[in-house]
Amino acid sequence: MFDKMLQISLLYDFYGQLLTEKQQEVVQLYYNNDYSLGEISEQLSVSRQAVYDTIKRTEKVLFEYEEKLGLVEKFINTQRDIEKILEIAEKIEHHIDLSKNDMRDFQEEIKKVRSIAIHILENSP
Question: How many structural domains is the chain composed of?
Answer without folding.
Answer: 2
